[in-house]
UniProtKB/TrEMBL annotation, chain A:
InterPro entries: AAA+_ATPase, ABC_transporter-like_ATP-bd, ABC_transporter-like_CS, ABC_transporter_ATP-bind, P-loop_NTPase. CDD domains: ABC_NrtD_SsuB_transporters. Keywords: ATP-binding, Nucleotide-binding, Transport. This is Nitrate/nitrite transport system ATP-binding protein. Residues 4-237 form the ABC transporter domain. GO terms for molecular function: ATP binding; ATP hydrolysis activity. It comes from the Bacteria. It comes from Cellulophaga tyrosinoxydans.
TrEMBL record, chain B:
PANTHER family: ALKANE SULFONATE ABC TRANSPORTER-RELATED, MEMBRANE SUBUNIT, NITRATE IMPORT PERMEASE PROTEIN NRTB. One of its GO terms (cellular component) is plasma membrane. It is a multi-pass membrane protein. It is found in: Cell membrane. This is Nitrate/nitrite transport system permease protein.
């Protein structure tokens, strides 16, 4: 039995004629302790896939099984790091993390919660900024807080939705290493959604490309058999790395070409307008 | 050795740059000072211009009214009466002064006389209090009410009454509008249930609100000896002004960013936690924008409502001065106008400060 299993999962938005099937027939198995990366173009339904796994949305058809049980709603067992860090701007770093800790460990008293929060903030190296508000932090620091918040709940599985997408290359590299360290410490299962092939190869055990939506499906998987810990500077000289990287990029380029030729077909876009409050009041 | 030389060179360079830097700095500061001076200067010039125009305007009106008075005397009573009227106006006697828009100097004089009047009344009050101290102590000991000063209210007293009324009304608006706004913001069905109610009552005029409150409060106060003018006026003010807060709160609560809601879901916050830890804080900026509008509306309608309710505030002061028609009534009305404007401005600044304290940029957490 796989740790996380998606069986023929499809998700359709809208109804009737206007409906769009964003992802269809997704089959995925992740074993316990594995680090899997899903690589795809922007707008290919990656966030939909993440939200299906973390329980924010329900599949239109098919099943999402977590430890053999169907996923119903969100759970503290699956920690999520969002694409935009989604910190609450009116709370300090401590309060943002403490909010999660209080929910995950309702029986702990104040000092236990404080210790837990402080240890996770220290882990992401933000002890000096623990009382600052998100607006006083840089993008990389904010993402660290989001990482600390997700991990402080001691989830059994970490789901990361393009967590480093908005960061500069240097910060990105540092945070990749930090996330790997944390993952290594207690070997949690991890799912990384990214648009960066190099990031996927550097971090994951397996890479699965997502064919772009609508009707996004998973492509063939690529196993990364480079020994850990991996050294970023040596990766470029690693034959296996180069081979896998070229294969994945060639595959993505090919489906990208397909997509271009397909997209000459005219799509009927749903007739949607931004929510207006003018009529409400 | 070489390093030392280089260091020497560096510091040489720096010391050579120093006077330029300080020169630039002083120039920059000079520019800053000049800029702020210019700003104040423009404001001062515009104030002087305003006073000058006002003075000229009031003078023109004064002359027109004076000419009319003389003309009227001439037509009705002949040359002699016209000459007498002219002499009377020129002498500045209060019995025959043209009654029109007062000049800035008249308004300033009225302001000073109002302050002097306030001091006089205050002295009277104190004298009354010392005189009655012994009697009052006896009355209180017997379990009866103490005798209080019931003389005329001074101008400062009317200002204080108005501020008290506006804050009571504001508090009432806050207590009604914020909870209802939150509840209807959370539930789309309640929102549609309340929608017609909001749409219909939002545009109702302050006068009508006053009449409605009067109908109800008058009946509730039957037999009570206490004065209900204050109660009526603050309830009317509150009801008039609460709509902005109600609508803004409902809008803020119903349009919380989806990212925050997702966080609440992923953290599995309970309903109570979700409302108080996520939804309310994120709608605080909009709620406070609403409260700011509410306070300025409250201050604006207050004058009309005090006038109707005979509550001894600025509104009643203005109305009584108008009815009074004394020589300096018009200038007292203008004084009240400035006081109303300045207090309204200060209240708005106060709310702006609070609003800026609670507001945050949506992008700050993202």
């Amino acid at each position: 039995m796989a740790y996380l299993e998606l069986k023929n999962v499809s998700k359709t938005y809208g109804q009737g004629k206007d409906s769009t099937e964003v992802i269809s027939n997704i089959n995925l198995k992740i074993e316990e302790g594995e680090f899997v990366a899903i690589v795809g173009f922007t707008g290919s339904g990656k966030t939909t896939l993440v939200n299906l796994i973390n329980g924010l949305i329900k599949p239109t058809s098919g099943e999402v099984l977590f430890k053999g049980e169907p996923v119903v709603g969100t759970s503290h067992e699956r920690g999520v790091i969002f694409q935009n860090y989604s910190l609450l701007p009116w709370l300090s770093v401590f309060q943002n993390v403490a909010m999660a800790v209080k929910e995950a460990f309702p029986k702990e008293n104040k000092s236990e919660i404080k210790n837990r929060v402080e240890s996770y903030v220290e882990m992401v190296g933000l002890t000096h900024a623990i009382n600052k508000r998100p607006k006083e932090l840089s993008g990389g620091m904010r993402q660290r807080v989001a990482v600390a918040r997700a991990l402080a709940m001691k989830p059994e599985m970490i789901i990361m939705d393009e967590p480093l997408g908005a960061l500069d290359a240097l910060t990105r590299g540092n945070l990749q290493d930090e996330i790997l360290n944390i993952w290594n410490q207690d070997k949690r299962t991890a799912l990384l959604i990214t648009n960066d092939v190099d990031e996927g190869i550097y971090m994951a055990d397996r890479i699965i490309p997502l064919k772009p939506g609508p009707n996004a499906t998973l492509g063939p998987e690529f196993i990364i058999d480079i020994d850990r810990p991996r050294d970023k500077t040596e990766l470029n000289d690693n034959a296996s790395f180069m081979k896998t990287r070229n294969e994945i990029i060639a595959y993505l380029m090919a489906i990208g070409e397909d997509r271009k030729s397909v997209s000459e077909v005219e799509y009927l876009l749903p007739d949607l307008a931004p929510k207006s409050f003018v009529d409400t009041f | 050795m070489e390093q030392e030389i280089i260091l020497q060179k560096e510091s040489d360079k720096l010391s050579f740059l120093k006077p330029i830097a300080s020169f630039l700095k002083s120039k920059f500061e000079k520019a800053k000072v000049l800029k702020s001076l210019k700003k104040t200067g423009i404001t001062l010039v515009s104030i002087l211009l305003f006073l000058g125009l006002w003075h000229l305007g009031s003078k023109a009106l004064y002359n027109k009214e004076a000419a009319y008075k003389i003309e009227k005397a001439l037509n009705e009573q002949g040359q002699e009466a016209a000459d007498a009227e002219k002499a009377c106006i020129a002498s500045g006697d209060s019995s025959c002064q043209p009654n029109t828009l007062p000049s800035p100097t008249q308004v300033w004089a009225s302001f000073q006389s109002l302050i002097a009047d306030h001091k006089l009344i205050n002295a009277k009050k104190e004298a009354f209090a010392t005189k009655m101290a012994a009697t009052n102590a006896k009355l209180v000991a017997q379990g009866k009410d103490a005798i209080v000063y019931t003389g005329r209210a001074s101008f400062v007293d009317t200002i204080l009454t108005s501020i008290k009324t506006v804050f009571a009304g504001f508090l009432l608006a806050l207590l009604i509008a914020v909870p209802i706004g939150i509840i209807i913001g959370l539930s789309p069905s309640l929102r549609s249930a309340f929608n017609w109610f909001i749409q219909i009552f939002k545009p109702v005029s302050p006068v009508v609100w006053y009449l409605l409150v009067f109908m109800i409060v008058k009946t509730l106060y039957i037999g009570a000896s206490s004065d209900n003018a204050f109660v009526i006026s603050f309830i009317s003010v509150g009801l008039c002004a609460m709509w902005a807060t109600l609508v803004n709160t409902a809008m803020g609560v119903s349009s919380v960013d989806k990212d925050y809601i997702n966080v609440a879901k992923v953290l599995k916050l309970g309903t109570f936690q979700k409302v108080f830890k996520v939804i309310l804080p994120s709608s605080l900026p909009l709620i406070f924008t609403g409260l700011r509008i509410t306070l300025s509306v409250a201050w604006m309608v207050l004058i009309a409502i005090e006038l109707l309710a005979q509550s001894p505030g600025l509104g009643l002061f203005v109305w009584e001065e108008f009815q009074n028609g004394a020589n300096d009534s018009n200038s007292k009305i203008i004084v009240a106008m400035f006081v109303i404007g300045i207090i309204g401005f200060l209240l708005d600044r106060l709310m702006l400060m609070v609003q800026q304290m609670v507001s945050f940029n949506k992008n700050e957490g993202i």
